[in-house]
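Contributing new records

If you add data, match the layout below exactly. Sequence lines come first and carry their own label; structure lines follow with theirs. Keep one chain per record. Anything else will be rejected by the validation script.
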Amino acid sequence: MNPPTSLYAFNEYSVAARWRVLDDIVMGGHSDGHFAITKEKKGRFYGAVSLRDGGGFSSVRHRFNPPVVTQAYNRVLLYVRGDGSGFEFRVKPNAQQDFSYVYPFSTSGEWEVIEVPLADMRPVRRGQALELPNFDGSRIAEISFLIANGREQRFQLLIDRLELL
């Protein structure tokens, strides 16, 4: 088996502006997500999810230009520390497509490695499963993390790195 290959790693050269927060405000909601780089050089996705006015989600995304060819790999390893909440890891092979491939995961409150089998990522558009094949694993143009647990809550997800395996 080949050693893991870096997909994205936070370090002293990481720039928060290369990550874009997208909240339910785009559809009239009131959630308030933020993204920053900590002094320890970790990505920090945090904020508050609101259900007011039909809201209920916050996300942060990063685009690769050009897309990363991933067909030689079958898993992504997420090195994260959540607050005990559930999140989704999402990918798009084409940044312009209107749906993502999704893998939900829970966090424990401690640093952990979440193993995401690429073939298990299912297609979803606006929270609705699509009748399409799962992710083929060929390339990744965009990655994102989303929180949408159906309740109002404050949240935090620290991200150290993502590796392909």
